[in-house]
Write a structure and sequence with these properties.
The protein is an all-alpha fold. The protein is built from nine helices and two strands; from the N terminus they run H-H-H-H-E-H-H-H-E-H-H. It folds into two domains: about 220 residues, Four Helix Bundle (Hemerythrin (Met), subunit A); about 50 residues, no CATH class. Helix 2 runs antiparallel to helix 3, helix 3 crosses helix 5 and helix 3 packs antiparallel against helix 7.
Length: about 270
Amino acid sequence: MLIDANLIIKEKIFLNLLPFRIQISQFKMKHIPNIITSLNLLSGFVAIIFAANGNIITASWLILAAMIFDFLDGFSARLLKAYSTIGKELDSLADVVSFGVAPGLIIYHLLNDTLSLSSSPVLNSEVLKFIILMIIPAIMPVCGALRLAVFNVDSTQANTFKGLPIPANALAVISVVIAGHNSQSLIFNSFTSSAFLLILFTIILSLLMVSRIPLLSLKVANLKFKGNEGRYILVGMVLIVFAIFRINAFPLIIPLYIIASALSLLF
């Protein structure tokens, strides 16, 4: 009888604690996407430290890691149905740091090195150099923040983007750095050592972010070809150029993304 009484007591305790344990479990699941988003922010912050110390290669790989975390937080939120207003705001704040400020600092470093070695009579003015270094890199995080602010209040961007997504902006920057470092190509070295091309590159990317050009969203609801034509075109083109050019194809991802977005309009 004593054993039966103990079992009854344990069952009652278990049943009383069960709702509490379920709430704890739900609480943990709810915050998994936010934890992953925080890893995105952490990667971006450490990337800024490395970029500030001149190590733009490591900074670029850390930004790439932030992109992976940025993908995983959205994926986990959809998988766990753990959507929240706080998560959305945290994601935007992390993106500004990782994909706006960090790549902007890489642009600053590249421009600073280029201007320091420039023999151009136009760029000999210290005042002009200072203005370029202070304004041009700053355009990128400012436009990135504006792009995210518009995205957060624009309900029409559920299936397609309007303007270049801020992670794509960061990918464009780090692809040039990583490909140039690993391929030792004269094309990339010429690009990163040209102040004019770097300024033009930064302005174009920044303007694309605040533009209203319709671009593909990479969120996939299913794997059917119908409705995902542009995404399959993009994957196919990326695989082809990487098979041909290997690491040198890295900077072609964003142009191909824009081309695939344009082709998707045909469907």
